[in-house]
Amino acid sequence: MEDIFTFADDLGPAKIMHITERSTGLKAVLVVDNVAAGPSIGGVRMAPDVSTAECFRLARAMTLKNAAAALPHGGGKAVIFADRRMDAGDKQRLMRAFACAVGDVRDYIAGPDMGTDETCMAWVRDENGRAVGLPPEIGGIPLDEIGATGFGLSKVAEVAARYCDLDLSGARVAVQGFGSVGRHAARFLTEAGAVLVAAADSKGTLVDSDGLDVAALTALKRAGKSVADHKTGEKKGSDAVLDVACDIWIPAARPDVLTKDNVDRLNTRLVIQGANIPVTAEAEAVLHARGVLSVPDFIANAGGVICGAVEYRGGTEVQALAIIEEKVRQNTEQVLAEAQAKGIQPRLAAVALAERRVRAAMALTRWS
C-alpha cells in the first residue's frame, strides 16, 4: 500500500478513506483533496488495477480542474477495485455498498468515471443523496449522451489551433480511447471539418488516412464491439495509435499513456488531454521541447465536471453547454497566452492559475 502522505502538501489531501467490506467484496479508496471552495466533486472509477496513488493524483487533478473552472467545488476522487464488466446485479450491489460506506462524507459528491455511468450514479444518490451525472428521468443532464467533455475538447481545439498555426478544417485527428469522451470529441471535431484518421480502444487501432466514419465506429462501440471490428481501414495493435501522423492527438483513456519511453513515437502538432493525467511530466517536457503544444487535462477536459456542477444546482442541458463553452474557451486562452508570453509549458501556467484560485478560496475559509 502506498504511503499517501508522501503526496501531501498545503493544499491537501483533506481526507483519505480506505474501504474494505467482506460481505459485498467491496474494496475502494476515497480521497477528498481540497474543499475550500465547496464540497468536492469527483468521479468514481472502477478498474481492477487502480491504486491509492492514482486516486490521489486524480483527486488533485479535480481540485485544479474545479478551481480553474471557477466552480464552487473542491476536488475529490474515488476508485473501486473491480472489473467494470461484472454482472449488472453484482455491480449494483457494489455501487450501493460504496455509496453507503461514504454516506457520512458530506463533502464528497460522486460522479461517473471510467467503469461507472449514469445508472451507477442513480444507485449512489438513492443511497446517500449525493451524485451528479444522473439519468434524465431523475433530473440529470446525461453527460455521456450529450458528450459534455468531448464538446469541451472541441472548443479547446478551436482556441489552441491558433497557437500552433493550425486550421481545424481538414486537420487530421487521432483519438486514443474511443469511449464516451473520445468518440464525442471526434464527433464534434469532424463536424467542424476535421478528419478522424485513427481511433483506438483496448482491443486495437483503426487507421484510415482518408477519414474514418465516426457514426459507424460509435455504433460499433455501443454494440459492445471494438473499433478494430470495422470492415474498412487498417487494423493495428492498441498502441499503434501513437505512431499515426496527425495534427491533433487526443488521449482519452487511462492515466500515463504517454511517457518518456514512448513520447518520441508521437508525430503531431497539438495534444489535447481528454483523459485525466494521461501524460507524464517527463513526456510533457519532451513535447514542449519539440514545439508540440499540449493542453493540460484539467483545462481541456473540464466539460464533464462543469456539466455536473450545473446539474447539481438544477440547471439545464442548454445552460450547461453554454457555460462549458464559455469557461473552457476562456481558460484555454488565458493559459496558452500566459505560456506563450513566458515561454513556459502550458501546464505550469495552468497550475499557477488553478492554485491562485484555490489559495484565494482558502483565504476566505477556515481551511487555513
CATH topology of the largest domain: Rossmann fold
The SS-based structural class is: alpha/beta
How many strand units? 12
- Helix proportion range: 25-40%
Task: Assess the beta-strand content as a share of residues.
Answer: 15-25%
Put simply, the count of helices is 12
User: Oligomerization state of this entry?
Assistant: single chain
Q: Architecture of the largest domain, according to CATH?
A: 3-Layer(aba) Sandwich
Shape: globular
Keywords:
single chain; 368 residues; alpha/beta; Rossmann fold; 2 domains; seven-stranded mixed β-sheet; five-stranded mixed β-sheet; globular
Summarize the structure in short.
The protein is α/β, with parallel strands linked by helices and 368 residues long. The chain has helices spanning 52-68, 88-101, 118-128, 143-146, 148-160, 182-191, 214-222, 281-290, 297-300, 303-312, 317-342, 346-362, and strands spanning 15-21, 26-34, 40-47, 75-81, 108-112, 172-176, 195-201, 204-207, 234-236, 248-251, 270-272, 293-295.
Describe the 3D structure.
This protein has twelve helices and twelve strands. The chain folds into two domains: 4-59 and 75-135, Rossmann fold (3-Layer(aba) Sandwich), CATH 3.40.50.10860; 148-356, NAD(P)-binding Rossmann-like Domain (Rossmann fold), CATH 3.40.50.720. The longest helix has 26 residues, at 317-342. The chain has a seven-stranded mixed beta sheet with strand order 9-8-7-6-10-11-12. It is an alpha/beta fold. α2 packs across α3 and α5 packs across α6 (182-191). The protein has helices at residues 52-68, 88-101, 118-128, 143-146, 148-160, 182-191, 214-222, 281-290, 297-300, 303-312, 317-342, 346-362; strands spanning 15-21, 26-34, 40-47, 75-81, 108-112, 172-176, 195-201, 204-207, 234-236, 248-251, 270-272, 293-295.
